[in-house]
């Protein structure tokens, strides 16, 4: 069994394929012209940081290198390499198979098979199973995710339970949680938002029972989690793509509860935190905030997969300032009068559902659009959206 963690030395051989599949000359032009483009009464303002992050760029590059290096082998992905349907479709078209498909099974893998691990990593148990099958592994786990794992492992070794701000079913959070319990006596609890953090705080302060707490978190904590024992010392970690401001707020809430319970002088014995939002996520969140504060906009458009956590959080940020349309691609812009998008709420409880918006374009006067894209959205998708926006306004 072999594990490749630094690619397959075929970067230059796949460069043209990556350019063909994901590059956009139009996006290059918009960037070169100061991240804005004017066409008739429409001006598009593109955030300074948007789209593919370093981790996604690397994961997709390694997947292409894998296909090139092993043209005659069966190549599998453990699941979506990143949360973008177009990128996953391209990989399928190249013959890469997805172990999450109903007809595939990890149990059917043979030692001559190749398996690519995605940018958000895989849980410890799954990795062990793949190793036991003797497959060749191409590990594209992002360095920023590995950094979270290190912190969570350190917490567990020092007797601190990990409180993970994330989505319990997200691949990255499941992988991070598995790192906590891979250390003897390690435990974790996953919190999604302020409301869930508040329940933990109430328990710490002694105003909420352990029974009720466990009833609420029964599907998002480690087996045998005992709040009486496992919420005495806690360390905060994040899914790397969460909303930075929310993660900081949750950390403060739990820190304050620990001070109330144990006193400020004992805080270091009961609470730890490391900032584990990745820099790419933070840069994209910061860039759209900067853009939105610069001027007023008719609306914002956020491009990205509907299951992409960082894209949803970009949409939440925009929705706090202006009407926001979270779209998957240019096909969502059906016409100048019809648009399909995901509903986004600025509040902590985000409801994402498909929506059809009629008359989304102002029919008269100038239109200013703030545009950004999640870390798993390639430039060609952004370019297609820009072209479609221009076409919709100018019909
Ligand atoms: S969003 Fe951050 S952690 Fe995730 S792949 Fe990109 S750089 Fe890595």
What is this structure, in a nutshell?
With 395 residues, this protein is an alpha/beta fold.
How does CATH name the architecture of the largest domain? Answer: 3-Layer(aba) Sandwich
Secondary structure tally: strands:
17
Distance between the termini: 58 Å
Helix content: 40-55%
Number of folding domains? Answer: 3
* Biggest beta-sheet profile: 5 strands, parallel
List of distinct ligands in this structure: iron/sulfur cluster
Inertia-based shape: globular
Q: What would CATH call the class of the largest domain? A: Alpha Beta
**Would you tell me which CATH topology of the largest domain applies?**
Cobalt-precorrin-4 Transmethylase, domain 1
Q: What class do helices, strands and sheet pairing give?
A: alpha/beta
Point out poorly predicted stretches.
347-351
For this structure, what is the CATH homologous superfamily of the largest domain?
A: 4-hydroxy-3-methylbut-2-enyl diphosphate reductase, catalytic domain
- Mean pLDDT, rounded to whole units? 95
Number of helices, counting only DSSP H or I runs of 4 residues or more: 15
Strand arrangement in the largest pleated sheet:
1-7-6-4-5
Strand content: 15-25%
Radius of gyration from CA coordinates: 22 Å
């Amino acid at each position: 069994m072999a594990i490749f963690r630094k690619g397959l030395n075929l970067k230059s051989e796949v460069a043209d394929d990556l350019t063909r599949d994901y590059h956009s000359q139009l996006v290059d032009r918009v960037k070169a012209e100061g991240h804005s483009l004017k066409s008739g009464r429409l001006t598009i303002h593109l955030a300074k940081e948007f789209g593919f992050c370093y981790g996604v760029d690397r994961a997709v590059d390694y997947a292409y290198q894998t296909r090139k290096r092993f043209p005659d082998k069966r190549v599998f992905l453990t699941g979506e390499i990143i949360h973008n349907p177009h990128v996953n479709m391209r990989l399928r078209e190249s013959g890469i198979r997805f172990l999450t498909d109903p007809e595939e099974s990890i149990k059917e893998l043979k030692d001559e098979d190749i398996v690519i691990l995605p940018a958000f990593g895989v849980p410890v148990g799954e990795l062990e199973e793949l190793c036991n099958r003797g497959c060749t592994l191409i590990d594209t786990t992002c360095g920023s995710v590995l950094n979270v794992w290190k912190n969570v492992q350190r917490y567990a070794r020092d007797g601190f339970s990990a409180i993970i701000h994330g989505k319990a079913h997200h691949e990255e959070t499941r992988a991070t949680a598995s790192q906590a319990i891979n250390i003897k006596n390690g435990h974790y609890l996953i919190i999604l938002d302020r409301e869930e953090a508040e329940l933990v705080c109430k328990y710490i302060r002694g105003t909420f029972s352990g029974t009720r707490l466990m009833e609420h978190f029964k599907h998002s904590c480690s087996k045998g989690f005992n709040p009486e024992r496992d919420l005495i010392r806690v360390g905060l970690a994040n899914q790397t793509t969460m909303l930075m401001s929310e993660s900081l707020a949750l950390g403060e809430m739990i820190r304050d509860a620990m001070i109330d319970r144990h006193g400020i002088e004992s805080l270091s014995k009961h609470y730890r935190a490391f900032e584990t939002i990745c820099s790419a996520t933070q840069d994209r969140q910061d860039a759209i905030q900067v853009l939105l504060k610069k001027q007023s906009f008719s609306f914002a458009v956020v491009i990205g997969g509907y299951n992409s956590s960082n894209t949803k959080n970009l949409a939440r940020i925009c929705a706090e300032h202006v009407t926001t349309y979270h779209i998957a691609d240019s096909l969502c812009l059906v016409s100048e009068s019809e648009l399909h998008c995901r509903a986004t709420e600025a509040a902590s409880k985000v409801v994402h559902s498909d929506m059809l918006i009629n008359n989304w374009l102002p029919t008269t006067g100038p239109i200013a659009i703030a545009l950004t894209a999640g870390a798993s959205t390639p430039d060609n998708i952004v370019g297609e959206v820009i072209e479609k926006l221009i076409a919709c306004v100018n019909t």
